[in-house]
Amino acid sequence: MLNSEVRCENICKKSMNTRQQNRGLELITHPPPGSKLAAAKEFGIDLTLLLENLALTPTERLEKAFAAAAFHHELRQAGQRPRVK
């Protein structure tokens, strides 16, 4: 089993039913030829992240987005502060 498959199985157990877990895992490990998923996988995109986000509830996705925005804001502020030598 691929590392991504093991990771996905652990992630997807959170809120997806068994059929959804299996279908999602199948799609990212063997995307249909010519599909956008196949193009993304070929390009090198980690498709397990897609399943990870789909396994979250809408509230959890918002919390994750707010946390990322807060982190981005802190980084911008840190970059704008004068450096002390």
Top keywords for this entry?
85 residues, mainly alpha, elongated
Short structural summary:
The chain is mainly alpha-helical and 85 residues long.
Descriptive notes:
This protein is mainly alpha-helical and 85 residues long. It has one domain. It has five helices and no strands. It has helices at residues 3-12, 18-29, 36-43, 48-55, 58-80. Helix 1 (3-12) runs parallel beside helix 4 (48-55). 11% of the residues are buried.
Instruction: Please state roughly what percent of the residues sit in beta strands, choosing from under 5%, 5-15%, 15-25%, 25-35%, 35-45% or over 45%.
Output: under 5%
Number of strands: 0
Q: What structural class do you assign from the helix and strand content?
A: mainly alpha
**Inertia-based shape:** elongated
Secondary-structure element series = HHHHH
Q: Can you tell me the residue ranges where pLDDT is under 50 for at least 5 consecutive residues?
A: none
Question: How many distinct domains?
Answer: 1
Largest sheet: none
Number of helices: 5
User: Helicity range of the residues?
Assistant: over 70%
Rounded radius of gyration (Å): 17 Å
